[in-house]
């Protein structure tokens, strides 16, 4: 333990005060958890999960020395040295597309299996909805994502709304819309007859006013706007982030804020409560799924470990969650418990001097580069 503390202190001299703060708050817990995370360098039995917004990027710009930090996880020949993935509540594009975008921005090869979006668990729901008409909501290409997952009858809320004349009474005032779809009928099926069987919010909705109206229509009528009241179809949110960092100096309202708006309006115009399921961090199952992916990555990097007992019968001994949002990233790692340890950066939602009072991280550092320096020194990796 003494050696580890010394290593941490050397690697993160800027972070000494923060580490001491964490130790002051939870001395025995921190010591206990860190002493259980002592993977020998030979086994390399640790992995890393990076949050994206506020840790790796703000908007599309890399922050906190993220390209250098990520490059340290690769060998000189460009092959992956340390198992890591991106665990984000964001999304709106297929994982393979996000992997390409991150590869370009960070200058390394990222595979689609290293990208876990808030909506990635929707994949598991394909069988339930088979050929049902479902609506995909949010920025980017939400319908393309759902089609990519295997859903067969998907419409984006943009396209779906365009079939219903006057469904958005404010549309004529939306001068900022340059291209307006004006479909009269869908080429393959009748949206005026067929009920929507499921609504999936994948990413931050773009036109809140219209989306609140159209979703209230779908959810109050049993899936057919303009018809009478009916049972609410299932509603899913990819995450419940109230706020996120983005490029503006202060936080922006996220999907959780949209959920609150929809829920509060729906509950006012109906005599029953809105039902929904939210995915994303801090749900422990998201962390469990990430741990499984990291274990597979570890085995692909070090196939020889398959022959040994190192990873065959055991799980990774430590997984570091590096995030900027205490309520989401740190809370999630805390809820998930061992082998998760949390590292909080000051490049996003969290800007405090000390640790977060409600969801204290195991370590607080300025940037993701500082986080990687600490982790690699602790794990005795050059
Ligand atoms: O819209 C994205 C945001 O809600 C969170 O992204 O990467 O911080 O989990 P991230
Ligand atoms: Mg974040």
From TrEMBL:
Lineage start: Eukaryota, Viridiplantae, Streptophyta, Embryophyta, Tracheophyta
GO biological process terms held by the UniProt record: glycerophospholipid biosynthetic process
Protein name: Uncharacterized protein
InterPro entries assigned: CDP-alcohol_PTase-I, HAD-SF_hydro_IIA, HAD-SF_hydro_IIA_CECR5
Chain intervals for the UniProt region annotation (Disordered): 15-38
One Pfam family, short name: Hydrolase_like
GO CC list: mitochondrion
């Amino acid at each position: 333990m003494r050696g580890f503390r010394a290593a941490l202190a050397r690697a993160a001299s800027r972070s000494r005060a923060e580490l001491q703060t964490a130790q002051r708050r939870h001395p025995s817990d921190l010591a206990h958890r860190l002493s259980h995370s002592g993977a020998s360098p030979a086994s390399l039995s640790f992995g890393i999960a990076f949050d994206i917004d506020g840790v790796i990027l703000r908007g599309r710009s890399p922050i906190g020395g993220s390209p250098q930090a990520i490059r340290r996880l690769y060998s000189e020949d460009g092959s992956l040295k340390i198992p890591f993935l991106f665990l984000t509540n964001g999304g709106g594009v297929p994982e393979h597309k996000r992997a390409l975008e991150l590869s370009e921005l960070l200058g390394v090869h990222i595979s689609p299996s290293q990208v876990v979006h808030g909506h990635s668990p929707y994949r598991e729901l394909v069988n339930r909805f088979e050929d049902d008409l479902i609506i995909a909501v949010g920025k980017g290409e939400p319908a393309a994502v759902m089609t990519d997952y295997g859903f067969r009858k998907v419409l984006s809320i943009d396209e779906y709304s365009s079939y219903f004349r006057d469904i958005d009474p404010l549309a004529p005032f939306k001068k900022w819309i340059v291209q307006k779809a004006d479909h009269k009928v869908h080429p393959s099926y009748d949206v005026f007859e067929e009920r929507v069987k499921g609504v999936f919010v994948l990413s931050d909705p773009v036109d809140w006013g219209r989306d609140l109206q159209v979703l209230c229509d779908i959810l109050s009528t049993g899936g057919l706007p303009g018809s009478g009241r009916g049972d609410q179809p299932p509603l899913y949110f990819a995450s419940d982030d109230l706020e996120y960092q983005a490029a503006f100096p202060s936080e922006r309202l996220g999907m959780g804020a949209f959920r609150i708006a929809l829920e509060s309006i729906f509950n006012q115009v109906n005599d029953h409560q809105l039902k929904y399921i939210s995915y994303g961090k801090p749900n422990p199952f998201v962390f469990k799924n990430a741990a499984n992916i990291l274990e597979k990555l570890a085995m692909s990097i070090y196939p020889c470990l398959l022959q040994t007992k190192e990873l065959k019968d055991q799980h990774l001994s430590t997984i570091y969650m590096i995030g900027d949002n205490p309520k989401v990233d740190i809370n999630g790692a805390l809820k998930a418990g061992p082998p998760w340890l949390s590292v909080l950066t000051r490049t996003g939602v969290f800007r405090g001097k000390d640790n977060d009072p409600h969801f204290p991280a195991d370590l607080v550092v300025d940037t993701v580069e500082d986080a990687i320096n600490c982790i690699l020194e602790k794990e005795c990796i050059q």
